[in-house]
Design goal:
This protein is of the alpha/beta class and about 300 residues long. α8 runs parallel beside α9. The longest helix is centred in the middle third of the chain and has 14 residues. It starts with a helix and ends with a strand.
């Protein structure tokens, strides 16, 4: 189903009319719609693509709150945990970032009110984008290779990860356990998986990675584990446990270079234990930009 079909019911006429006027190329390259109170609507498209038409409408604070309520289906209580974390996942796997007045208690954020900004991120699968990666994950006549994908933000790590999970599941017949802490991989909306992650894939949604990895290992007997954005020491501890159980992992992390990745504190114990057999840096559009082995020795350049 086209993404506009999912999103138009939530959006006011000035935005909806412009979305309907876009041609196919413009639709395919649009990545985000950013709405801010008392400021122009911002389109975010793929780099190097033409600018989209401006919208002659400036939303008020009341407009932003009304749009936020439409995303919440007028029931903030039903999405209380999502709002506390600052985002919602919609049907189709699309994601709405929320920014406004935080409600806190004991130094922790408990909710949000007076929404002033919305970031609508358009989810779209790219079937086949991970074709080049599969021989690295499942080399012929060799054991599977745990792999960490890394790059600067915005180059397609999650899109690549999602398609790799699908291919492991459907093409290679592997049972894949996914810990989708922020509902970005499978795009679960109220528990319903929205993105194609394969027929043999089990998704643990909205669960911290450190907890979820242990749950999947004990409950689902996965042949692969998958997580997005490794960044905390408890994530590293869970990945170490996974390695001890002999289950390969495909994961992602933010880093501009291998040197930058290796200097992150979370990587120390993972490197020492050689949890990952290889590190793959991504270039534009989720392409390969380099591969290194477990010791950081350069193997090839994309």
């Amino acid at each position: 189903m086209p993404w506009r079909t999912h999103l138009l019911p939530y959006l006011p006429p000035p935005i909806g009319e412009t979305l309907r006027s876009l041609d196919q190329d413009q639709t395919d390259t649009l990545r985000e719609i950013r709405l801010r109170a008392k400021r122009p609507i911002e389109w975010v498209s793929a780099p190097g693509t033409e600018a989209l038409p401006s919208i002659p409408w400036i939303p008020s604070s009341e407009d932003i709150n009304q749009i936020a309520q439409s995303f919440l289906d007028h029931s903030a209580y039903a999405h209380q945990e999502d709002v506390r974390l600052g985002y919602l996942t919609l049907r189709g796997g699309h994601r709405v970032g929320l920014c406004g007045r935080a409600k806190t208690e004991g130094g922790k954020m408990t909710g949000m009110g007076e929404i002033q900004s919305l970031c609508l991120r358009i989810a779209r699968p790219v079937p086949g984008v991970a074709d080049w990666l599969m021989p690295l994950l499942m080399p012929r006549d060799e054991p599977p290779r745990s792999t960490l994908l890394f790059s600067a933000p915005g180059l397609g790590k999650t899109t690549l990860l999602r398609d790799a999970i699908r291919l492991l599941s459907d093409r290679y017949g592997q049972r894949v356990g996914v810990v989708d802490e922020r509902s970005e991989i499978a795009g679960c909306a109220q528990g319903d998986i929205q993105m194609d992650v394969g027929q043999r894939t089990d998704v643990l949604d909205a669960c911290p990675k450190a907890v979820g990895l242990m749950v999947l290992l004990r409950a689902m007997a996965p042949q692969w584990l998958a997580v997005d954005e490794v960044g905390r020491m408890e994530d590293a501890e869970a990945l170490l446990e996974s390695a001890l159980c002999g289950v390969p992992v495909i994961a992602t992390a933010h880093a501009d270079s291998l040197e930058g990745l290796f200097t992150r504190p979370v990587m120390g114990p993972l490197l020492d234990a050689k949890v990952f057999a290889q590190f793959v840096r991504l270039g534009a559009n989720a392409s390969m930009n380099g591969v290194w082995d477990a010791r950081g020795v350069h193997i090839c350049t994309g």
